[in-house]
């Protein structure tokens, strides 16, 4: 019996979201600034012992027990096995656990795809580099699953760390790590607060409306794209305050792309945070629900958290590792 367990970080995306959709960057290019954090999803994959009556056991919010790949309900697992050309000569057990809820704007579906591919390949003793891992995950989500997702989350999960991710018109993707002084990194972390707004949604549904509006709001996407390098330069210069102000400007731009991105509930949370001291922030992911990232001067942090006491505060720090195999059984 073989077993492999992957650990894949979730991410927070700061700037450039929207320019990572192929429908946009294959024409105009794109870029995002994002970082992975120390909250993770875990994928355990093992070959099924021969004395079980079923061939496949998939454990997520459901427990699936079936005898063929085509019977598997979890879309990413079913299509992931097909994409990696697993046959039915050996049964598999695949179990998912996550530190954060799915469909909440943290790149969970892409983290799942990256971790699944990493674990399944590990069962075959195949080790791929970070770029190939990201590209395989993009292929799984965009081509096999036909999900309306961008290309940033898979890259963030595979690489880890704070990066500018550039998307070129020829389809190539380049990752540029942002190396900050430790003092600046500590300041950035001290200004960041993650709040769960109490709801989740299927991000691809919101993304479809965003993709549909790309041609209607091209100048907005271009402005959001341009802010990536400005924000990266601010961090490298240690100008944390400007970074926070730009987060606010970018969120105002993003909200204007589609009515599906925000709603009265989200707007009220954000305006409450701003009224009590937050400089900027944004709703993470495609929109409408999930986690909100706030930029708050440390001396105003307690005041903002008190004003938002009805919402769950999730402490976090930045992660440098990217997707890893944390356990692999010997032969």
Detailed description of the structure:
The protein has two domains: 3-179 and 319-328, Ribosomal Protein S5, domain 2 (2-Layer Sandwich), CATH 3.30.230.10; 182-313, Alpha-Beta Plaits (2-Layer Sandwich), CATH 3.30.70.890. The longest helix is centred in the last third of the chain and has 19 residues, at 218-236. The relative contact order is 0.19. It has helices at residues 22-28, 75-83, 108-123, 130-144, 152-159, 182-191, 203-213, 218-236, 240-255, 264-275, 301-307, and strands spanning 3-15, 30-47, 56-59, 63-66, 92-98, 162-167, 173-177, 192-196, 280-283, 291-295, 312-313, 324-328. The model has no long low-confidence stretch (mean pLDDT 93). Helix 3 packs across helix 5. Helix content is 39%, strand content 24%. The strands form two sheets. Strands 1, 2, 3, 4, 5, 6, 7 and 12 form an eight-stranded mixed sheet that branches. Strands 9-10-8-11 form a four-stranded antiparallel sheet. By secondary structure, it is of the alpha+beta class. The termini are close together.
């Amino acid at each position: 019996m073989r077993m492999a367990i992957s650990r894949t970080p979730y991410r927070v995306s700061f700037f450039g979201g929207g320019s990572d959709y192929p429908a946009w960057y294959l024409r105009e290019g794109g870029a995002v600034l994002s970082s992975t954090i120390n909250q993770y999803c875990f994928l355990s994959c093992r070959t099924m012992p021969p004395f079980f009556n079923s061939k496949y056991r998939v454990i997520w919010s459901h427990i699936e027990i079936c005898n063929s790949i085509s019977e598997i309900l979890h879309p990413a697992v079913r299509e992931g096995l097909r994409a990696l050309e697993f046959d039915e000569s050996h049964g598999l057990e695949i179990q998912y656990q996550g530190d954060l809820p799915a469909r909440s704007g943290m790149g969970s579906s892409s983290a799942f795809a990256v971790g699944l591919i990493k674990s399944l390949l590990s069962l075959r003793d195949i080790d791929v580099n970070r770029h190939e891992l990201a590209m395989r995950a993009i292929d799984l989500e965009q081509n096999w699953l036909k999900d309306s997702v961008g290309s940033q989350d898979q890259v963030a999960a595979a690489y880890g760390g704070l990066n500018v991710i550039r998307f070129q018109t020829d389809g190539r993707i380049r990752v540029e790590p942002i190396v900050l002084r430790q003092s600046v990194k500590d300041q950035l972390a001290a200004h960041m607060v993650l709040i769960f707004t109490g709801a989740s949604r299927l991000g691809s549904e919101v993304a479809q409306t965003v993709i549909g509006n790309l041609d209607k709001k091209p100048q907005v996407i271009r402005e959001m794209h341009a802010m990536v390098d400005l924000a990266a330069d601010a961090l490298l210069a240690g100008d944390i305050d400007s970074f926070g102000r730009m987060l606010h400007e970018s969120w105002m731009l993003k909200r204007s792309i589609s009515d599906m991105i925000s709603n009265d509930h989200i707007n009220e949370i954000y305006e409450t945070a701003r009224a009590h001291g937050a400089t900027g922030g944004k709703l993470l992911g495609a929109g409408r629900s999930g986690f909100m990232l706030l930029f708050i001067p440390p001396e105003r942090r307690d005041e903002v958290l008190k004003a938002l006491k009805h919402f769950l505060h999730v402490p976090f720090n930045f992660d440098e590792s990217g997707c890893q195999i944390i356990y692999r059984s010997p032969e």
